[in-house]
């Protein structure tokens, strides 16, 4: 009985395999049937693939966007750093240009003055608290600098040497309003008028010249230079131009206001002159 059952099972298995093989052979020979069966299957698989892969495509796109964002941020940071460096370099270049222009101006100004002594040095100390009062130059006794010598910068007279060490000199600026008593000459259309530069008017931003020796008319924009008539200071250093004249009943008691030729706000190099 057991052998008979096994034989039947084997028979049915072989029969099923044979039918399956014939069916497959028939299907593959008939392309229309194969196409009809596989086409819906392919369509379903394609849709499933599209649905399943959509989130992954979104993640890939998001990942690329994040990478681009980080790349942009990194490039932005580098560009900002370069811009800051360029701005710093530009400021340094502008500062060097300004100093170079002042140095050339000082050299040209000193070359046009007839004097026994002339030396140009860099400003090394200028406190914001006393910006318009005084400064220190890197020139001293070793450079033959002496007290009462005149200092000029930016094309005009700026002060007087008040203290000298071996390597540095202190200069009292004319803009501090103190009494200086520097003899000056005013060139007018009718001749020269001599007077004394006594102080600085901070309200008018002008030098004050008085003790005039002549009643000659003085007009606006007449030039003013040092006269050197005190025997200590150098002559023909530009002081400025006449801004206005305060008249008096006595012509010799008139007061002349002179606009400085030099700019006191920015002084990098100073030329010290003396006889």
UniProtKB/TrEMBL annotation:
Which InterPro entries does the record cross-reference, listed alphabetically? Answer: Cell/Rod_1, Cell/Rod_MreC_2, cNMP-bd_dom, MreC, MreC_beta-barrel_core
Q: Which residues form the signal peptide?
A: none
The record ties this protein, via PROSITE patterns, to: CNMP_BINDING_3 (PS50042)
Q: Which GO terms describe its cellular component?
A: plasma membrane
Stretches that traverse the bilayer: none
Tell me which stretches of the chain form a coiled coil.
69-106
Q: Which UniProt keywords apply?
A: Cell shape, Coiled coil
Q: Name the GO terms of the biological process aspect.
A: regulation of cell shape
KW Coiled coil (keyword) present: yes
Q: Could you tell me which Pfam families the record lists for this protein? A: MreC
User: Which stretches make up the Cyclic nucleotide-binding domain?
Assistant: 196-275
Similarity comment text for this entry: Belongs to the MreC family.
Instruction: State what this protein does.
Output: Involved in formation and maintenance of cell shape.
Name recorded for this polypeptide: Cell shape-determining protein MreC
**Species name:** Streptococcus equinus (Streptococcus bovis)
């Amino acid at each position: 009985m057991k052998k008979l059952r096994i034989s039947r099972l084997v028979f049915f298995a072989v029969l099923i395999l044979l039918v399956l093989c014939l069916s497959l052979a028939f299907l593959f020979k008939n392309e229309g049937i194969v196409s009809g069966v596989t086409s819906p299957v392919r369509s379903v698989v394609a849709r499933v693939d599209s649905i399943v892969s959509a989130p992954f495509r979104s993640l890939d796109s998001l990942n690329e966007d994040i990478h681009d964002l980080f790349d942009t941020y990194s490039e932005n940071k580098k560009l900002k750093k370069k811009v800051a460096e360029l701005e710093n370099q530009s400021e340094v270049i502008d500062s060097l240009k300004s100093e170079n222009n002042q140095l050339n101006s000082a050299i040209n100004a000193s070359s046009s003055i007839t004097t026994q002594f002339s030396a140009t040095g860099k400003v090394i100390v200028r406190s914001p608290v006393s910006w318009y009062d005084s400064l220190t130059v890197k020139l001293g006794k070793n450079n033959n600098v002496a007290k009462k010598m005149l200092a000029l910068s930016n094309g005009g007279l700026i002060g007087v040497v008040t203290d000298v060490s071996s390597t540095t000199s202190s200069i009292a600026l004319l803009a501090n309003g103190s009494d200086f008593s520097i003899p000056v000459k005013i060139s007018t259309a009718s001749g020269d008028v001599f007077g004394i530069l006594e102080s600085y008017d901070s309200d008018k931003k002008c030098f004050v010249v008085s003790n005039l020796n002549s009643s000659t008319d003085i007009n606006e924009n007449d030039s003013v230079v040092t006269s050197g008539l005190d025997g200590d200071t150098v002559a023909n250093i530009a002081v400025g131009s006449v801004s206005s004249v305060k008249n008096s009943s006595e012509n010799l008691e008139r007061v002349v206001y002179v606009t400085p030729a030099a700019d006191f706000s920015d002084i990098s190099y100073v030329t010290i002159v003396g006889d």
